Amino acid sequence: MVGILNVTPDSFSDGGDYPDVDKAVAAGESMVAEGATIIDVGGESTRPGAEAVPAGEETERVLPVIKGLVDRGVTVSIDTSKPEVAALAIASGASVINDVTGFRNPDMIDVAAASRSGAVVMHMLGDPRTMQDEPQYDDVVGDVRAFLVGQALRLVDAGLDPSAVVVDPGFGFGKTTRHNLELVNRLGEIVTSGFPVMLGASRKSTLKTLTGEEDPKRRDGHTAVLTAIGFDRGARLFRVHDVGRSRDALRIAAAIVNPQRWEEWQQD
Ligand code: HH2
């Protein structure tokens, strides 16, 4: 489970929730206590229509939080599309780069290769300012898969271990509700790439479209449903705001899909 920690004023659901470093670090630690194995720290919102943040400002937001978490033994990923922010985050102890632009910038591949970090390659159509303007695909799953595999192989060619390269279909990034649902339903076609698959549907507006729930913070139960279905389809990493609820959903899903693994958990 990957816990989301946005230290931004304007993220769509948790913007402004962590006004100082201590609060952010404490929130990260409590997500770890609930079952997160990685905390994904972000300093720039990528919600539809979001404006870009200068690198210096993004760095000032994320570095103290990364250092605080790493000092407490927490594994951190940096959610950024800027190579200079990623490099500084890695120098401060982050071990994974989560790039919503899918390492399209070759400098980002260089940063990952030089630091031997882990990498999350996410698919996005266009950029956050324009991505929801009538997105179109020939076949959303085929198009997304081809992009993800191409970029993941670039990272492997640059020297990353294939098991450290995660692919993510980018739920909500240049996709209609129908596209998002089809990607989850046919996630198995991305799983066959052999790269571990991450799902990041937490609190996203498709859940509002499906249920009418306006308040993102009341969509954690909805998110947990997608976590369980995503697990069934083969996703193995889940980027969520409410770690405890998705952990419980995973326990239930795993007990059904993989009873032996569940019995091992019981004995732990
Ligand atoms: N979604 C968001 C940000 N980063 N990274 C990955 N790998 N996958 C995702 O689906 C993903 C992501 C957007 O969600 P959030 O961080 O909650 O909001 P905001 O971008 O407004 O900060």
Task: Reconstruct the topology from this structure.
Layout: E1 2-6, H1 21-34, E2 38-42, H2 55-71, E3 76-79, H3 83-91, E4 96-99, H4 106-115, E5 118-122, H5 140-157, E6 165-168, H6 177-185, H7 188-191, E7 198-199, H8 205-211, H9 220-232, E8 237-240, H10 243-257, H11 259-267
Parallel strand pairs: 1-2, 1-8, 2-3, 3-4, 4-5, 5-6, 7-8
Helix pairs in contact: 1-2, 2-3, 3-4, 9-10, 10-11
Protein architecture, described:
The structure is a single chain. This protein is 47% helix and 12% strand. The chain contains eleven helices and eight strands. It has an eight-stranded parallel sheet. The protein has one domain (2-267): Dihydropteroate synthase-like (TIM Barrel, Alpha-Beta Barrel), CATH 3.20.20. Strand 1, helix 1 and strand 2 (38-42) form a beta-alpha-beta unit. It is globular. The mean pLDDT is 95. The structure holds 6-hydroxymethylpterin-diphosphate. 6-hydroxymethylpterin-diphosphate binds at residues 4, 6, 8, 11-13, 42, 45-47, 79, 98, 100, 120, 122, 168, 170-171, 198, 200, 239.
Coarse structural class: alpha/beta
The CATH topology label is TIM Barrel
The CATH architecture is: Alpha-Beta Barrel
Oligomer: single chain
Across the major sheet, the strand order is: 6-5-4-3-2-1-8-7
Beta-strand level of the residues, as a percent range? 5-15%
The percentage helix is 40-55%
Largest sheet: 8 strands, parallel
The chain-level mean pLDDT equals: 95
Order of helices and strands: EHEHEHEHEHEHHEHHEHH
